[in-house]
TrEMBL record:
Residues 2-93 form the BLUF domain. This is Diguanylate phosphodiesterase. PANTHER family: BLUE LIGHT- AND TEMPERATURE-REGULATED ANTIREPRESSOR BLUF, CYCLIC DI-GMP PHOSPHODIESTERASE PDEF. Gene3D superfamilies: 3.30.70.100, EAL domain. It comes from Mixta hanseatica.
Length: 428
């Protein structure tokens, strides 16, 4: 099967430009061995490469490219399939954009086409090429430093290491995981993450129950979350709890139950955030909407969890107008290397900014993910990079410290929110 792969990368600053010719010669020889063809564009700073060939061969070539230290910040823009090669005459042809005008290089590229149909920019792959030549997306090229530019240092004083045991007849317990602003070294809120006392995940356990009992178990488990919050003494700290949206309508007086348990454990509605999950089909949307209005009228904030990976998608933003959305970890994972994921995240940020909805990136595990997301405009994060969920306790947070600045006692916690974005971009 004929595969097409397009990527963009940044030429390493310490590599002389004269090395480019040698790179192209080696790439040509290597590509010919694998039956891979394509073109390479270079604008003095960035590479843009289109590879075509058998899928396994293209992926093998790309793996080698990803491990080449002569360039960095590789972003895969497209992975697709085609009936014929667009550029089939050479292993790799270089177009140095510094030697062409925009229109002349675009025509030169089209002239190299080998397809039986004349190449035009109606072709999606060539639209990427044109966008690169015209530098229409350059403001979205976030150049992030390597992961080892940062250390993540646990601050035992950042969160209390309190531990407690909650006695509960249900099959669930809770672990606390913070949502943080890494650069200001502040904890935004704590999420009570449901844990199953048996093997498997909480959702797997709930799915084994009779349908009418699933929602009752989900709702009533929040009593244990509130009890844990009280024993840990979170005081004025915001607390997030997950809730299946249908629990609000399938269980009679669900909203009143939540409000009663919040008060019973010395909490106030204004410090509670209910995160409704997007991974369940909402069959009675009007009733769910009514229940959410009751929650918000009582002072409880609303978040949409797993945003971008569930059933409802953007329609939830229209119906519910949440205070915040939590981008699903499947979109966050390796976002620094994926053009499609970057486009989706940027669209979410722009949409939520227009609606004054806060954005949280969840499941952050790599420094590179955090750095790209921070550069894109997200400031609140949750994930194992900073703190893993702690059963019946609050974990200490690992805050980022610049490796070479740590020796002089500097930490980004001293920066203002306006300054930390510039610091991140200049750190490299």
């Amino acid at each position: 099967m004929l595969s097409t792969l397009i990527y963009r990368s940044h030429f390493a600053d310490d590599v002389p430009v004269k090395a480019l010719e040698e790179m192209v010669v080696k790439a040509n020889n290597n590509n010919e061995l694998y039956g891979v063809t394509g073109i390479l564009l270079f604008n003095g700073t960035h590479f843009f490469q289109l590879l075509e060939g058998p899928e396994e061969a293209v992926l093998s070539i790309y793996d080698g490219i990803c491990n080449d230290p002569r360039h960095h910040n590789l972003v895969e823009l497209l992975r697709d399939y085609a009936p014929a090669r667009r550029f089939g005459n050479t292993g790799m042809e270089l177009f140095d954009l510094r030697e062409y005008g925009q229109e002349s290089v675009l025509q030169a590229v089209l002239d190299r086409g080998t397809s039986k149909y004349q190449l035009t920019y109606n072709d999606r792959a060539l639209q990427f090429l044109r966008t690169f030549v015209e530098a229409r997306e350059k403001e979205n090229y976030f150049e992030i430093p390597p992961a080892n530019y940062w250390d993540f240092v646990t601050d035992d004083a950042s969160c209390a290491e309190s531990e407690t045991t909650v006695t509960d007849t249900d099959a669930f317990s809770f672990a606390m995981q913070p949502i943080i602003d890494p650069f200001s070294c502040q904890t935004d809120s704590l999420e009570a993450v449901m844990q199953c006392s048996y093997e498997g995940s909480p959702l797997e356990h709930l799915s084994q129950l009779a349908r009418e009992k699933i929602y009752q178990a989900d709702l009533h488990s929040k009593k244990a979350a509130f009890a844990l919050a009280k024993k840990l003494g979170i005081e004025g700290q915001r607390l997030s709890v997950n809730l299946l949206p249908m629990s609000l309508v399938m269980v009679p007086n669900a909203v009143n139950f939540l409000l009663g348990e919040i008060e019973a454990y010395g909490l106030v509605p204004e410090q509670i955030v209910v995160e409704i999950t997007e991974n369940e089909v909402i069959s009675r949307i009007e009733e769910v909407e009514t229940a959410i209005k009751q929650l918000k009228a009582a002072g409880i904030s609303l978040a949409i969890d797993n945003f971008g990976a569930g059933y409802a998608g953007l329609s939830l933003l229209v119906r519910f107008q949440p205070d915040r959305v939590k981008i699903d970890h499947s979109i966050i994972r390796d976002v620094h290397k994926s053009g499609p994921k970057q486009a989706i995240v940027q669209a979410i940020i722009k949409c939520c900014s227009s609606l004054e909805i806060g954005v949280i990136a969840t499941g952050v595990e790599k420094a590179e993910e955090w750095m790209w997301l921070e550069a894109a405009g997200i400031f609140n994060f949750q994930g194992d990079l900073f703190a893993k969920p702690k059963l019946n306790g609050i974990p200490a947070v690992a805050w980022p410290e610049k490796s070479w600045l740590k020796t002089i006692g500097f930490t980004p916690c001293s920066l203002s929110s306006a300054e930390h974005f510039l610091f991140l971009l200049r750190a490299y």
